[in-house]
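Consider the following input, taken from an annotated entry for BFN domain-containing protein (Halomicronema hongdechloris C2206).
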Amino acid sequence: MIEMKVAGIALDAVSRSPVVLLRDTADRRALPIYIGADQAKSIINALENQVAPRPLTHDLFINLIDEWEMSLERVVIHALRDNTFYALLTLVHGDTRRELDARPSDAIAIALRADAPIWVMEEVIADASIPVDRDADEAEKQAFRDFISNLSPADFGQHKGRRPSNDPYENS
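Applying the prediction step yields:
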């Protein structure tokens, strides 16, 4: 899993739909997720520390968590199926841990209010992220290509200077 931070909200140039943009902590990858207008407003309110005069839905959820002495351990965006992202909220109460299915937009709005980390599974990043630093990505790819091209079959042999042991439990 890769920890991500909310970089902001943008509007898609063509559809004018709101998009929440998550970035990894190294600023190498960004994950755009299309969301609804209400969730976009809620995320913006959380990013700007704006408090509504009455609790809105995500605020109410946080109030419920606090009142029942629970905590939001983390949010995990764990899947992308048919262009739909899936997220889980991990709630903790004492020694009990529960996961709740949630839309990523709601999960992000709640995580921001609870100051909880947002994690994304590597396969989701691989499928849906966009590069932020193309030069660093290309340099990393080239370094990997150079490494692979210099490998020989002997590199996969036993570690030099170490004798094989007859002890069957040594490597277990």
